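Why do we care about 3D structure at all? Because function follows from shape, and shape follows, mostly, from sequence. That is the central idea of this module. The next example makes it concrete: a single protein chain, its amino acid sequence, and then its structure expressed as tokens.
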Amino acid sequence: MKTTKIITALLLAVLCTPTFTSCSSKDEVEKVSSPSSPRSLTAANGKVYIVQFDGHVTQLDTTNLSLGQTITVGANPDASVIAGNKLYVANTGGMAAVMDSTISVIDLSTFKETKKIKVNLNPAGIKADSYGDVYVVSNGDYKNIPGKFQRIEAGTDKVTDINVKAKNFDIVGDNAYISNFEYDANWAAANKTIAIYDVKNEKLVSANIISTEIAKTPYCIDVNPVTKDIYLGVTDYTNNGKMYSFKEDGTYNFEFTTGINPSKTIFSKDNKSLIVLNEGKYEANNAGLSFFDLTTKTSTDNYFLAKNNRALGDTGQDMIRYGSKIYIAVYKSSIIEVINAVTGISIKTIPMVTLTDKVAK
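And the structure:
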């Protein structure tokens, strides 16, 4: 009997190793990959920081285009911005039972989250000014808790409400350019405005600078850092969208057709052209790029397809230019597409996945 107990103990010791979750040779743990769904991109010091909707942020080395360290942030993070040597990530909690209302602060020297700052429910947009202050647009719960426009003060992290209605915004120089609209009784976008807020003196300059009738629903706003021209992308979520261009004072410039759901505009270094990221329809695999020549005022739709003879992917979420490359976060396809900023030719397609443990029976 004693011998039997000893043999049994030895067998258990062999079977219960760190690669097993129970005392059975059939219960082996294996690594399983799942799409991490990239949502937002920022870049600094030779790295692109990829915010993923599954709750992680990953470093990408811009020299060799290899993925580096990954850290955990809040639930369903969306937008992000760098201020000083810190990365601020807006945690929406949009898919959680209870929405999030925090901004994760990451020290870029250590690549560790140092704190979470409490803001309004469901923060979805975030930008920084040149003074280190961070501005946040939140959506609330779409029912009882309204959205807000808030400022996180540099140094103290004090959060202050700003009495300006906002759906989306961009900051260039000392001005925040704030896009807003309201839904009417038929859920159509109405009362479309672009407000100007002075971030240096912390005051509203104008509640609305545009008088042009805007078709469809405002979807993105980006400001040319050189000319200060304002670009407002609009959508009906089904058909091709449109990009409106306004001068700094709100005077109408021009407009051109984009793909479905224009979500981001970036400008060439020589300021002679721009590229629009078209989100496309979810699960339709029709995300793409529109190229616009600012000299001839001519546009080229399906720019990525024409340059690379393939689709960009499903749901283009964010795009940045850093150095000689453009980085594109394609959400549903869960990839980062890297292209040459001048030629539009693909350099590398990087799959974005998260590895988790799974017990294989």
